[in-house]
Design goal:
about 575 residues; alpha/beta; ABC transporter transmembrane region fold; Rossmann fold; 4-stranded antiparallel beta sheet; 21 helices; 14 strands
Length: about 575
């Protein structure tokens, strides 16, 4: 994204809060006017000191009194200006972060699957903060800087036109120097921002999989990988900071020439009687104040460059295409019988690698369908297609005769209760985690679901029972306990269809038997899909689909497939008889 376009979009967000911008401009005008009035008063006080034993103390006292009010007033309106600019910055950041998070809820699941989660988190948190910091500095310097420059020129013209022309002619050189350096640093700041995202992604993966890293003694390799990314970040960060740090000293050098020129010309004017000593003092102060905005702007260039680079990464998320919207006439299904017809569907994640080809299946209401097969055969992909996490490339999936593409996604997904192999819990109480899918559930319903999942006794032994707080991802629970909580969550919702994707993979054998009984109870009359590697869990299924390379290789119940002595027979015996 071009820098100009990025800046325009940032200003578009800021423009929504125009009342604060206008207020900040008004306060800036008053603040700068009072600030510029102070040198005039000081100059007048100097001129009251005419010579030895010739000092107008009364006049100086009056000027000091006025100067006191001017300084207090300037401080007050500066505070009001900063408060308004802060509001613009914080509200802009709030809106950008809100839009970014909203977009993450509307992008296709493929974007989340293919983008490092740490990088996404870095954009939502750190990059938005960088925009806020750069925007806060930029807006503050912009408002006060423009008013200071204009006001100073007006005051200087009132004192002496020739000296004012000298100041105005020399000062733009500092802007030229700063712009040249800015162009050189922009590329480095973009590279720095991208590398920061890469480092955040790596760190998030490392921390979330710490147990796996330690179990394989992978710490040293991980440290080397981290050091390599960190070293690249150091190099591009140093270059960006070095080049950008040249801008402020360079502009100050130019401004030093301005100050020197004013001092020389002013002194000559005093000798010639064209200016008083107090006016020269005032002019020197104005020369500093006139160049100050240029120095301040160049001083915040590093933050501003970082803000632009970070904004580009944020807008790259916001500009992602939304998930294909529901059809305009899509129906909102509240319940179903569970008859599913899958007609000749094909799907692939990448066009060059076909996964599911010409897949067809007919499932009657209340049937239990087990899906088995080697890793990568398409079991989980098939579940993703049922839930419309991904859309089929061709073919149709119908529920009770209605194409799922003609249903709203939300209503379709509400028809299923899903228990995944990887249990998901969030920071909150046990009650909140169980009622995630049904927030208005009563205590009796929650307890009933927990008992059905054989987790009630464990919860009751906790210090606060159902109000016990658990950490992110349920870090203070065992894997089996987390899985049971997820099962209780689905049992509470009691949907018409179930998907169990290795739902008992993390549970010990004794608990698995009890939970299997609970599943048998909850699956009565419900169409259920069971994805399993442990074949002992699917013996009672009405139909077992044996998948390989995206196709149904065999289908039938447990006894029928064993009698065929085909792929399922070998798969089953490899688990229970030790045959390869």
């Amino acid at each position: 994204m071009k820098k100009g376009t990025t800046l325009k979009r940032i200003l578009g967000y800021s423009g929504k809060h125009i009342k604060y911008i206008i207020s900040a401009m008004i306060f800036a005008i008053i603040y700068v006017s009072l600030t510029l009035l102070a040198p005039v008063l000081v100059g007048q006080a100097i001129d009251k000191i005419v010579g030895e034993n010739d000092v107008d103390f009364r006049g100086i006292a009056n000027i000091i009194l006025v100067l006191l009010f001017v300084i207090v007033g300037a401080g007050l309106f500066q505070w009001l200006m900063l408060m308004c600019t802060n509001m613009v910055s914080y509200l802009t950041v709030r809106d950008m972060r809100r839009d970014t998070f909203k977009k993450l809820n509307s992008v296709p699941l493929s974007y989340i699957d293919t983008t490092p989660h740490g990088d996404i988190i870095n954009r939502v948190i750190n990059d938005v903060d960088y925009v806020g910091d750069g925007l806060l500095q930029g807006i503050t310097q912009l408002f006060s800087g423009i008013v200071t420059i204009v006001g100073t020129i007006i005051f200087m013209l009132a004192l002496n036109v020739k000296i004012t022309i000298v100041v105005v002619i020399i000062t733009p050189l500092s802007v030229l120097v700063a712009s040249l350096i800015t162009r050189a640093t922009n590329k480095m700041y973009r590279e720095q921002s991208v590398t920061q995202g890469e480092l955040s992604g790596f760190t998030e993966e490392f921390i979330s999989n710490q147990k796996l890293v330690k179990s394989f003694a992978h710490e040293n390799i991980a440290e080397k990988q981290f050091d390599e990314i960190n070293a690249r970040l150091k190099v591009c960060g140093q270059k960006a900071q070095f080049y950008s740090s040249l801008s402020n000293p360079s502009t100050r050098l130019v401004n030093g020439f301005v100050y020197t020129g004013v001092g020389i010309i002013g002194s000559i004017s005093v000798i010639n009687g064209n200016l008083s000593v107090g006016q020269v003092s005032c002019f020197l102060t104005y020369a500093n104040q006139y160049t100050k905005p240029f120095n301040e702007v160049t001083g915040v260039i590093p933050q501003f460059q970082t803000a632009l680079a970070s904004a580009g990464r944020i807008f790259s998320i916001i500009d992602e295409l939304d998930e294909k919207p529901d059809n305009p006439d899509a129906v909102n299904i509240q319940s179903c019988k569970g008859n599913i017809e899958i007609e000749n569907i094909s799907f692939s994640y990448a066009p060059e690698k076909e996964l599911i080809k010409n897949f067809s299946l007919s499932v009657k209401s209340g049937q239990r369908i087990a899906i088995v097969g080697p890793t990568g055969c398409g079991k989980t992909t098939f579940i993703n297609l049922l839930m419309r996490f991904y859309d089929v490339n061709s073919g149709e999936i119908k529920i009770d005769g209605i194409n799922i593409n003609d249903m709203t996604r939300d209503s379709l997904r509400n028809l299923y209760g899903m228990v995944l192999q990887e249990s998901w819990l969030y920071s909150g109480t046990i009650r909140e985690n169980i009622t995630y899918g049904k927030p208005d559930a009563t205590d009796e319903e929650v307890i009933r679901a927990a008992k059905s999942a054989y987790i009630h006794n464990f919860i009751s032994r906790l210090p606060d029972g159902y109000d016990t707080f658990i950490s992110e991802q349920g870090g203070n629970l065992s894997q089996g306990q987390k899985q049971l909580l997820c099962i209780a969550r689905v049992m509470l919702c009691n949907p018409p269809m179930l998907i169990l994707d290795e739902a008992t993979s993390s549970i010990d054998t004794r608990t698995e038997i009890r939970v299997q009984k609970a599943f048998d109870k909850i699956m009565q009359g419900k169409t259920s899909f069971i994805v399993a590697h442990r074949l002992s869990t699917i013996k009672e299924a009405d139909m077992i689909l044996v998948m390989k390379d995206g196709n149904i290789l065999e289908q039938g119940n447990h006894n029928e497939l064993l009698a065929k002595k085909g792929f399922y027979y070998n798969l089953y015996n490899s688990q229970f008889a030790g045959n390869n």
